[in-house]
Amino acid sequence: MASDPMSVNSSAREPPAPPGSGADEPKYGGYTRFELELEFVQALGNPLYLNHLASRKLLSNPAFIAYLDYLQYWSRPPYLKYITYPGPTLKNLELLQQEKFRQDIISPDLVERLRLEGMKAGIDWHRESFPSTA
């Protein structure tokens, strides 16, 4: 098996086994495919990283687009529970399925808007989770 996730037809691959499943996953650079894909999918929660991917023309590469489609398994159990920030991560993963978004994310204005929305959501969550007692 090649270590490059885009070197094979991602849509035909099964998601990696989650930790504790007893599966003996091969390691790539010391990490399992589960760990590598988790790290990558979590990076998609960062609008600046999405802009970087767009600037490198990856978001117009059919193999990369197929890989993004394959990664949607992270939105379902049992994988969902491993994502640290599921809100922005899964929102961006869903948006990346749309060609218009993949084209528009090159815009610094969109990146900034997504960044500010993410910060606002984090602040709102904190206020709701830890209301002041004053």
In terms of topology, how is this protein built?
Blueprint: E1 27-28, E2 31-32, H1 33-43, H2 47-55, H3 62-70, H4 86-95, H5 99-104, H6 108-129
Antiparallel strand pairs: 1-2
Helix pairs in contact: 2-6
Describe this protein's structure.
The protein is an all-alpha fold and 134 residues long. The protein has a single domain (32-129), classed as Arc Repressor Mutant, subunit A (Orthogonal Bundle), CATH 1.10.10.1340. Helices cover 50% and strands 3% of the residues. The chain has helices spanning 33-43, 47-55, 62-70, 86-95, 99-104, 108-129, and strands at 27-28, 31-32. Strands 1-2 form a two-stranded antiparallel ribbon. Strand 1 (27-28) and strand 2 (31-32) form a beta hairpin. Helix 2 runs antiparallel to helix 6.
Oligomer: single chain
Average pLDDT over all residues: 89
Helical content (DSSP H or I, runs of 4+): 40-55%
Question: What is the topology, as strand order, of the major beta sheet?
Answer: 1-2
Give the overall shape, derived from the CA principal axes: flat
- Which architecture name does CATH use? Orthogonal Bundle
List segments where confidence is low: pLDDT < 50 over at least 5 consecutive residues.
Answer: none
The name of the CATH superfamily reads Mediator of RNA polymerase II, submodule Med31 (Soh1)
Characterize the main sheet. Answer: 2 strands, antiparallel
The beta-strand count equals 2
Structural category: mainly alpha
CATH class assignment: Mainly Alpha
Radius of gyration: 17 Å
Query: Counting H and I runs of at least 4 residues, what is the number of helices?
Result: 6
CATH topology grouping:
Arc Repressor Mutant, subunit A
Number of domains: 1
Distance between the termini: 59 Å
